């Protein structure tokens, strides 16, 4: 079985979290993500500026695993979402991925 990098990052993050206090996904999201992503539904002004911003609804999450979300956090997406791999640890990205699942409209 072949393991992908996002899956490995997520597994390492979860293993590390068992040994230390888990990062606060909500606090990390508020600090780094909320400006563009709002509460999972980008504001009309942000959506006009960045029309590719997704709404995090059931359809969005139905097709994405936490490892998929960590991969986007790690590597960025398109020209507007920067990669966070040099800013957030694997554990922090895993915590953010878990937190954003709570933001379903």
Oligomer: single chain
Q: What portion of residues is helical?
A: 55-70%
Uncertain stretches: none
Q: Radius of gyration in whole Å, from Cα?
A: 14 Å
> Which geometry do the CA atoms define?
globular
E-strand count: 0
The domain tally reads: 1
CATH architectural designation? Orthogonal Bundle
Mean pLDDT over all positions: 88
Largest sheet: none
Residue fraction in strands: under 5%
How far is it from the N-terminal to the C-terminal residue, by CA?
Answer: 36 Å
Characterization of the model:
The chain has helices at residues 5-19, 25-32, 34-37, 44-49, 58-62, 66-75, 90-100. It has one domain (5-103): Cytochrome Bc1 Complex, Chain D, domain 2 (Orthogonal Bundle). The chain is built from seven helices and no strands. With 105 residues, the chain is mostly helical. It is 56% helix and 0% strand. The longest helix is centred in the first third of the chain and has 15 residues, at 5-19. The N and C termini lie far apart (36 Å). The mean pLDDT is 88. The relative contact order is 0.24. The protein is globular.
Secondary structure elements and their pairing?
Layout: H1 5-19, H2 25-32, H3 34-37, H4 44-49, H5 58-62, H6 66-75, H7 90-100
Task: Explain briefly what this protein structure is.
The protein is built from seven helices and no strands.
